[in-house]
Design brief:
The protein contains nine helices and seven strands; from the N terminus they run E-H-H-H-H-H-H-E-H-E-E-H-E-H-E-E. By secondary structure, it is of the alpha/beta class. The longest helix is centred in the middle third of the chain and has 13 residues. The chain has two domains: 161 residues, HAD superfamily/HAD-like (Rossmann fold, 3-Layer(aba) Sandwich); 55 residues, no CATH class. The protein has a five-stranded parallel beta sheet.
């Protein structure tokens, strides 16, 4: 039974990857992940360069200002996701968990911007419920769920004894799935008994999660990162 949920901030609650590409002057949507170059994986700077930019990791991230970090758009499913999580575990048991970026910056502007985003987009009852760490697996417990877009964070969380739900994004195995539809299927399994019941071959699922993952086109059925 899930008792606590950790929500990733970037590319789950907001649309970081698309937005930072846009503000770097690339002709791309701030929110539509279908325009992201899938071949680049989760390397936003490589994505920028593939779309015509000429930048290094360091100068790319240093160019994103505190104000820009604070002004990132919400993901289209963010209000629904927060409401659903509150229904599942209660307001006091939801925490934002966000990582620092890999490239050192001259000032912690990006983190100040992230906190401004939290205060602007989350309700008051969430303003003291956040954790800043790259080591999200340290928060894992059998009754905790991490909702994140990065497979590495999900895998480490599961290996440390927690449960994970991978948000579809172009850089993970659920690329092409509709994110909200995917989340609805799995989170509903935590609200009512799972209609599928048994553990599927190759699926990492235990507990109340069925691991039944169906892409939007329903042609591909892959083991889910839900466990």
């Amino acid at each position: 039974m899930i008792q606590r949920i950790f929500l990733d901030l970037d590319d789950v609650c907001n649309t970081l990857a698309m937005y930072v590409l846009h503000v770097r002057g690339i002709d791309i949507s701030q929110t539509n992940y279908a325009e992201y170059p899938v071949a680049c994986g989760y390397d936003i700077v490589a994505a920028a360069n593939s779309l015509g930019a000429r930048c290094t990791q360091r100068n790319f991230w240093r160019s994103i200002t505190q104000k820009q970090w604070a002004l990132m758009p919400e993901s289209d499913f963010f209000p629904w996701l927060l409401k659903t999580c509150a229904h599942l575990v209660g307001r006091k048991n939801i925490y934002i968990v966000t990582a620092s970026i890999d490239i050192p910056t001259q000032a912690p502007d990006y983190m100040v911007g992230k906190l401004e985003w939290i205060y602007a987009h989350f309700p008051l009852w969430m303003h003291q419920q956040y954790v800043i760490t790259r080591h999200k697996y340290l928060l894992a417990q059998p009754d905790t769920l991490l909702i994140d877009d990065h497979p590495g964070h999900i895998d480490a969380f599961i290996k440390s004894g927690g449960q994970g739900l991978l948000v579809p994004r172009p850089w993970n195995v659920h690329a092409g799935c509709d994110a909200k539809t995917h989340l609805e299927r799995h989170l509903e399994a935590g609200i009512k008994p799972c209609p599928y019941g048994i553990k599927r071959t190759g699926c990492r699922t235990t507990g109340p999660w069925c691991g039944y993952c169906r892409a939007e086109n329903s042609l591909v059925q892959q083991p889910s990162y839900v466990v």
